[in-house]
Design a protein that fits this description.
Length: 65
């Protein structure tokens, strides 16, 4: 998957899950579309994305200074 974070070794990326949630799909809808997923996979994907968004990026940090 080009080095992108995937769900438990599946060919389903974290970015896909985050995009689906951002576009209004519920965890139940997502699991319905991707039956190999579990609700916990969706929660973990959102936690991972949140952790990435929380990171301070040097370039942005230097602009704020």
């Amino acid at each position: 998957m080009g080095g992108r974070a995937c769900i438990r070794g599946m060919r389903i990326t974290v970015s896909l899950i985050v995009n689906l949630v951002a576009n209004g799909m519920s965890p139940e809808d997502i699991v319905g579309e991707y039956p190999d997923l579990e609700p916990e996979d969706i929660r973990q994907s959102l936690q991972y994305a949140s952790a990435l968004a929380y990171e301070e990026i040097g370039f942005v940090k230097s602009l704020a200074a």
